[in-house]
Amino acid sequence: MNIGYACLAIAVPGSEMKSCTLKNASPERLLSLIDNNLNALDKLITYNIDRGIQLFRISSDLIPFGSSLAADLAWQEIYSDKLAAIGQRILGSGIRVSMHPGQYTVLNSPDQSVAQRAIADLHYHTTVLDSLGLGRDHKIILHLGGVYGHKEEAKNRFIARYKDLHSSIKKRLVIENDDRLYTIADILAVSADSGIPAVYDNLHHAINPSPRSYGDRDWIKACSASWSGDDGRQKIHYSQQHPSKRPGAHSDTIYIDPFLEFWNQIADMDVDIMLEVKDKNLSALKCIHCTRDSAITTLENEWAHYKYAVLEGSPEQYQAIRHLLRNKNAYPAVEMYRKIEAAFNLPVLPGNAVNAAQHVWGYFKNCASKNEHQRFAQMLENFSAGQTKLPAVKKYLLRLALKYQENYLLHGYYFYL
Question: What is the DSSP string of 147-166?
Answer without folding.
Answer: -TT-HHHHHHHHHHHHHHS-
